[in-house]
Amino acid sequence: MNLIFDIAWTHVRARLRQTGVAVAGVATGVGFSIMMAALMQGSQDDFIRQLVNAMAHITVSDERRAPPPQPAERFYDAAEIHNLTPEARRRGIKNPLATMAALEPWLPGGIAPTVRVQAIIRYASHDVATAIVAIDPRREPLVSDLPKQMRGATLAALYRATNAIVIGDRLSEKIGARIGANITLQTSEGARLNAQVVGFFHTGVRQIDESTAYVLVKTGQILARQTGLINELRIRLRDPMAAREIATRVERETGYKSVSWEEAHEDLLSTFIIRNIIMYTVVGAILLVASFGTYNIISTITHEKARDIAIMKSLGLSEFTVRSIFVVEASIIGVAGAVAGFVLGYLLCLGLGSIEIKSPFLDSNHLPLAYSYLHYLLAGFVALASSVIAGYQPARKAARLHPVEIIRGAT
Questions:
Q1: Residues 176 and 314 in one domain
Q2: Tell me, what's the pLDDT at 411?
Q3: What pLDDT score does 42 carry?
Q4: How far is Cα 173 from Cα 187, in angstroms, rounded to an integer?
Q5: Which residues cross the membrane (predicted)?
């Protein structure tokens, strides 16, 4: 084995220019594939992160996923009842505090009660439909990033004024309201009250920032005209990817409709499947082109060593030993190129990440990039595999020929 490695290392050092070109070809393919994978994966992760953080991971509403079965349907399989007018029932989740107490022991995350009301905000001749979310500021940090998204105040400001309200920064721009402004809230059921703006928030999701406002739970109950109303429980998990399974269990135990963030955005998330196919296709194409370049360079080097093969065979080296020499030589070039490509890819990612982008539609001034070891492993594996194949195939063909034919130039 030492002889094989010594001869391969001698070949690699003998022509540094060719070796450098081969290593540079491998490094270029690896580096740019890492950069593209980091860019596309980073943009997707950033979008999902904003999507997940903009809302609760699981929302338990006071609705039922299916109407309750009728007595006849319970006892007779042939019974089928349609077009029944559902009975009028009191809105809200029954015994919300008891429900929360039952979920908290096993729930891997936080839970908070909410009152959600649709209302019209009126200010300075502007009427804007808004989702009013009534919260408990003490529990809110358990289920959302709202405390970190506040602008100009903290959530504690909701306690400092009568009927205090926090609105999205884009909503404030739309209606022209500033901190301290008195606005009017009116619901379709006739509830009407004056509220004072005590702060703004910014989530980065335009739809939320221009159509959502937060008030205290008691203020939401006044707007809903129902004392003690809690019509929604919001849950945030330590692992957002477990939301679908946890939501199923919550719905089974409570009987109320529980919607995970994945279910709420199924249509949007399904597009990521196509996007991932595109991403891996682009990265694969870069690696494939780089592999062909690597194959051409290394196979050319192998063909140029044909006389060396004849000399080695005439000295008694077996076909296996000759093939192994060139496979080791190709592996050295592949490993060196992959390592150089790792450095190049990392530097390219740093360069892209340092580019400042100024746009009113972006919350971040820099491109989102994902630094994942999987990108490096995939690119390195393809580079090494293509290098080994490039060294093996020509050496296998040349090692089968008779040394005399090679020296005479029969090949």
A1: no
A2: 47
A3: 83
A4: 22
A5: 21-40, 277-299, 320-353, 373-392
